[in-house]
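Quarterly update, task 2.4: pyridoxal-5'-phosphate-bound model.
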Amino acid sequence: MSNKNEMDYSPDSIAASYSQRDKWLKSAPLPVVDPIYNASTYFLPSTAVGEAIIAEKQPGYVYSRIRNPTIDVCAEVIAQLEGAQGGTLLTSSGMAAISLVFLTFLKSGDHLVCQYPVDTHTIKLIEDLMMGNKVEVTWVDNNKMDAFEKAIRANTKMVFVESPCNPSITLQDLESLGKLAQRHPQLITMVDGTFASTYVQQPLKYGVHISMHSCTKYMGGHSDITAGCVSFTNKELYKKAQWYSTFLGPSLSPFDASLLHRSLKTLPVRMERHSINAMKIAKFLEQHSKVKVVHYPGLESHPQHNIAKSQMKMFGGMISFEVDGGKEAGIKLVESVQLISLAVSLGGTGSLIEHPASLTNTESLMDEEARKKCGVADGLVRLSVGLEDADDLIKDLTQALEKL
Ligand SMILES: *Cc1c(COP(=O)(O)O)cnc(C)c1O
């Protein structure tokens, strides 16, 4: 309803549908921060205009599951950061982004080549839903690109990798993946780059087709939203996924899109501090007598340190390390920290620690053999290094390690 109320509407009508749209249209305040449009639907000046917007013959909005201005602004920021010519879609979680891509591009009888391991829930999505839908899958359990290439068949539709990979912090060589994509033009290549964030690494610039992130992690960065994004190298892929997004309905809420947009403003400074802190802590852990091995791409001892240097702007905030004394010691450590919090997830301002064998890669999700294949030793601990003073974090880890 217009705010002029010339028809002298009843309080019921005013309560139900009053808005200040006329005032806004005439003298819109121009805020420096984009407003949150939490509307689910939009006034249409006429059916003809509505029809033209739906047919994409005219810009505008009709219904927020399809498009929303707050989401569009945030998606545009990510598209620019990713170098995504095709555009970016935002989703209500990282898993929603992966599901959207799989359901859009993989049909019964298609073949998927997937790195092993990837995120535990991605493994479950593929094993339960995609394989249940008769999508064929080949798991490739090492990081050599020729193993991926050997797995490609006539019906291979997609190659999916995660880099850095959870929880072993191994990397996938993105340049080789881009070259593989060039040699097999029928393939769609996709990278889950959640552990790095788009500031640290941009897969699309190597010729990869699709880049996704769980924005619940670094992109959101404050442990206060669940969100995902998926960016496409060309309009054709984007359009197809957007079409399915309209039906599957994984849209992000405008409020969460606004928080995500706000977070992106500090992504570069946050990633820089995460990386500086993580490097100090990785070096501290590497020389500690109770630590067997440290996995961090910034360490020269990381087997793929050279790949990290070539494709990552900095080395990020994710470390995993193995303590002496197996499961008991791993659990003792994560329960002994004080400044650091025992919690799953990652990428927030506060440091988080977890024990993969009992939480993210636990028995209810995978058996012993699968856990081994994922590089989850009993004493493995995963640390998401936050923005605290690195010396304080080292102090905390020192006292916790002393308890082992
Ligand atoms: C967290 C995570 C996901 C899933 O994202 P959600 O936002 O939790 O749905 C996927 N991949 C990786 C690497 C993750 O860390």
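Highlight for this quarter: The CA atoms of residues 121 and 187 lie 23 Å apart.
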